[in-house]
Amino acid sequence: MPNVKEGSSAAANRTAVKRKSDRELVVTRTFDAPVHLVFEAWSKPELFKQWWVPKSVGMSLLSCDMDIRTGGTYRLVFSHPAFDQPMAFFGTYKEVTPHKRLVWTNEDSDQGAVTTVTFEENDGKTLVTFHELYPTTAALEEALAGSAEGLPEQFAQLDELLAGRS
Amino acid sequence: MHPWVIPLRITHARSTVNHMVHYQARLDRTFAALSDVTRRGVLEQLGNSDASVTDLAQRFHMTLTGMKKHVSLLEQAGLVTTEKVGRVRTCKLGLRRLEEEATWIEQHRQLWSARFDALDELVEHLKREEKADAQRKRR
């Protein structure tokens, strides 16, 4: 059984991000709450929009439509001060199994990833695994290349800073 | 998605022909570089340790000129970088790609930490509410 550390919610490094293979990104974190509450926060739009766009990101969520059921669709519209036009993210829920699994597509890009989120309760805590599978290595490479190429000027500086520290 | 990632995905989706051509060319160079068994061997070797062009030529039983060609193709694809110190040209795995990958992972880590911290707070709040509800019912 995993030995989950007790700590304040500010404890660093509780969120693990890994590139699992050429086509996969995996993010994990354990929440100190039973699975029905964690799942509720992912599946009720009014709760989901309270955390999906962290304040530090500088974006605002203009609208959030989520028809959470297998075969249902979602559409999130964001605005960012650096861009004139709002940006829409949309796709379809391939699987909605309450308290266990969510699978959705990212259809705003032709080479969008398929996202799978699993929830596992253990001893009153819930392990959330967020998994993104890109259709091809090239699609992930493009996402990767995009993070260093063709950046808007205002972000290029920040990139340099990050690269300098790594 | 992170602010650096979202606008980029959008930029990609609406990308100009120029950008596609640029990306395509880059991809072509990468695949061309990887299409040769010797060059794949060189990458594997450099994954273990840096090596000079002379070392690589010896290890792969070829002329210095032949190896220079292979290294140059790997270099153009961004898979290898070289540095000449004195008379020795040392090859190592392409920093640029590794940096890109590190940057990408770091962006995701920052986003997900912030996002999951917010989710953590919300879930704590839901938990307290549920407890309060249960106590009210018991009374």
What does this molecule look like?
The complex is a heterodimer of chains A (166) and B (139). Chain A is of the alpha+beta class and 166 residues long. Chain A has a single domain, classed as Alpha-D-Glucose-1,6-Bisphosphate, Chain A, domain 4, CATH 3.30.530. In chain A, 23% of the residues lie in helices and 37% in strands. Chain A is built from 4 helices and 8 strands; from the N terminus they run ββααββββββαα. Chain A has helices at 35-43, 45-51, 137-146, 153-165; strands at 16-21, 24-31, 60-66, 73-79, 87-97, 101-105, 114-122, 125-133. The longest helix of chain A has 13 residues, at 153-165. Chain B has 139 residues and is mainly alpha-helical. Chain B has 2 domains: 1-93, Arc Repressor Mutant, subunit A; 95-139. Chain B is 73% helix and 10% strand. Chain B has 6 helices and 3 strands. Chain B has helices spanning 6-13, 17-34, 37-48, 53-59, 64-76, 95-138; strands spanning 51-52, 80-85, 88-93. Chain B has a 3-stranded antiparallel beta sheet. In chain B, strand 2 and strand 3 form a beta hairpin. Residues 1-20 of chain B have low confidence and may be disordered. Classes of the chains: A alpha+beta (166), B mainly alpha (139). Chains A and B meet through strand 2, helix 1, helix 2, helix 3 and helix 4 of A and helix 1, helix 2 and helix 6 of B.
